[in-house]
Amino acid sequence: MGDIGPGGACVRSFGELELAVMDLAWASPCPLHPGEVQQRLRPAHPVAYTTVLTVMSRLHAKGWLARKKEGRGYGYWPTTSRAEYAAGLMSQALAIGGNDSATLAQFARRLSSARRTAGAA
């Protein structure tokens, strides 16, 4: 059930810090080092270097980040695009819904309602 992510498991949503790291990786035109990520996460996510290193290592082990040895450390980059990740989540949601047409229709109604509400604000 659901699409298989780069790590060979079902696609799941990222935790808050994982998503913050992936956001930076998706936005970067070149590989990122854990120290750079730590600096860019501040002040929204004041975390230790070792925490960032652990998160990036785990994302690599799960297949979401690739890495290459650069000096004494590694440079990391995403293995899939943000759109590919979102499509995997959407595929799983459709599978859970059981009826693609009904699920998509409900999604469209909610999306239209949210956009109307946002436009009124």
Task: Present the secondary structure layout.
Blueprint: H1 16-27, H2 34-41, H3 49-61, E1 65-70, E2 73-78, H4 82-97, H5 100-120
Antiparallel strand pairs: 1-2
Describe this structure in words.
This protein is mostly helical. It has a single domain (1-121), classed as Arc Repressor Mutant, subunit A (Orthogonal Bundle). It is 58% helix and 10% strand. The protein has five helices and two strands; from the N terminus they run αααββαα. It has a two-stranded antiparallel ribbon with strand order 1-2. Strand 1 and strand 2 form a beta hairpin. Helix 4 (82-97) packs across helix 5. The protein starts with 15 loop residues before the first helix and ends with a helix. The model has no long low-confidence stretch (mean pLDDT 87).
Structural key phrases:
mainly alpha; 5 helices; two-stranded antiparallel ribbon; 121 residues; single chain
- Find the CATH topology: Arc Repressor Mutant, subunit A
Find the CATH superfamily. Answer: Winged helix-like DNA-binding domain superfamily/Winged helix DNA-binding domain
Summarize the biggest pleated sheet. 2 strands, antiparallel
Number of strands: 2
Portion in strands: 5-15%
Give the helix/strand class.
Answer: mainly alpha
Give the domain tally: 1
CATH class, please? Mainly Alpha
Q: Helical segment tally?
A: 5
Straight-line distance between termini: 39 Å
Helix content: 55-70%
Looking at the overall shape, the CATH architecture is Orthogonal Bundle
Assign an overall shape: elongated
Average pLDDT: 87
Rounded Rg: 17 Å
- Written as H for each helix and E for each strand, in order along the chain, the element string is HHHEEHH
Biggest sheet strand order reads 1-2
List unreliable stretches of 5+ residues: none
